[in-house]
Write a structure and sequence with these properties.
Blueprint (H helix, E strand, L loop, with lengths): L1 H14 L6 E8 L5 H11 L1 E8 L2 H9 L7 E2 L3 H9 L3 E2 L29 E13 L22 E4 L2 H11 L9 H14 L3 E5 L3 H6 L5 E5 H10 L3 E4 L7 E6 L1 E2 L5 H11 L2 H11 L6 H6 L2 H4 L24 H13 L1
Parallel strand pairs: 1-2, 1-3, 6-7, 6-8
Antiparallel strand pairs: 4-11, 5-8, 5-9, 5-10
The chain binds pentane-1,5-diamine.
Length: 340
């Protein structure tokens, strides 16, 4: 009982900016941080972190939009950041409070989703590709088409993420993954419905255990997760198909509904500190936009094209754009596919 009272008291005083411990609510992708970094932050800054995870940008957005969740720091992707800026959901970040921003490579600043870099600080970047088991698939794999090959019936894992699954299908068909053309979208929908009997499951983070455990032959995955899986199972190989894919950027933002913008900036700055950013990059395997971390990473990571692709690997790839008025069409297609 005493503990309950104390906890309640800490919560109240944090809201009023009292002397007792402050709290910070962070909302990030699953498996997307070295958790020791959170413990260290709490000790160093005497700020308690409430840490929650989401599986897709769309899940995150729905939760924030529903109201009642006052996250202080969230880490969405490019196209979703653009949408949140346009909808007035984000606060501007005071860069004076984030001096470690200087470590972020210029290549990752002022990108189209936040052209003046007022609202977001890059965290990680990567690609979408296919991971496959060399013992189970006749390789080398180089096309999205393999995901429609009947030979691999019930051995294929798709991402339970509408933007990714519809996007790669559009790429396979030779279209842009930002297509708003009804005919192209209809074709993609047909392909995904046709593929469904071959799909073992639509998955999120559990894809890692399944591929490591040889439960499926092929999966659509994000690059950093592929690095993680390849470490654990030497039969796995990652490829960015020749038709092109999605290059994405995830960045830290401060929602307007957050109650601790100052502490949020402290946290973001901490996440950009070289030792902290290095721990995260090594633990999760994703590509860092941090210049110093890049220098300090083990060569097994920097020489791995899965995580640091060559220009030619990315030649047909695109960044997702906000779909704006076409979003309901994608929503409808995805609901249709999932309910078949
Ligand atoms: C999931 C992290 C994925 C980030 N483990 C994709 N933008």
């Amino acid at each position: 009982m005493l503990l309950v009272l104390l906890t309640a008291f800490a919560g109240v005083s944090a809201g009023c900016g009292g002397e007792t411990q402050k709290t910070l609510k962070v909302y990030n992708w699953g498996d997307y941080i070295d958790k020791s970094v959170i413990d260290d932050f709490e000790k160093e800054y005497k700020i308690k972190v409430i840490y929650d995870e989401f599986a897709t940008n769309e899940d995150m957005y729905a939760k924030l939009k529903a109201g009642g969740s006052d996250y202080d720091v969230v880490i969405p992707s490019d196209y979703m950041i653009k949408r949140m800026i346009d909808e007035g959901m984000l606060q501007k970040i005071d860069m004076n409070n984030v001096p470690n921003y200087k470590y972020i490579d210029e290549r990752f600043k002022n990108l189209a989703y936040d052209p003046k870099n007022e609202y977001s600080i890059p965290y990680m970047w990567g690609t979408v590709g296919i991971i496959y088991n060399k013992k189970m698939v006749e390789g080398p794999v180089d096309s999205w088409k393999v995901l429609w090959d009947k030979k691999y019936s019930k051995q294929i894992l798709m991402l339970d993420s509408q933007r990714d699954s519809i996007g790669i299908t559009l790429k396979m068909l030779g279209y842009s993954l930002n297509s708003k053309e009804p005919k192209e979208l209809e074709e993609a929908e047909k392909m995904l419905i046709q593929q469904k009997p071959l799909v073992l499951a639509y998955v999120g983070d559990e894809v890692k255990d399944k591929m490591i455990g040889n439960e499926a032959a092929l999966a659509v995955v994000w690059s950093g997760d592929a690095v993680f899986m390849k470490r654990e199972n030497k039969d796995l190989e990652y490829v960015i198909p020749k038709e092109g894919s999605n290059v994405w950027f995830d960045a830290m933002v401060i929602p307007k509904a957050g109650k601790h913008p100052k502490e949020a900036e402290t946290f973001i700055n901490y996440m950009c500190r070289t030792d902290v950013a290095l721990k995260n990059a090594i633990a999760i395997g994703y590509s860092t936009p941090h210049t110093e971390v890049r220098k300090q990473l083990p060569t097994e990571l920097t020489t791995d094209r899965t995580v640091y692709p060559e220009k030619e690997d990315l030649k047909n790839s695109e960044v997702f754009e906000d779909l704006a008025e076409s979003l309901p069409v994608y929503d409808r297609i995805w609901t249709e596919i999932k309910s078949k």
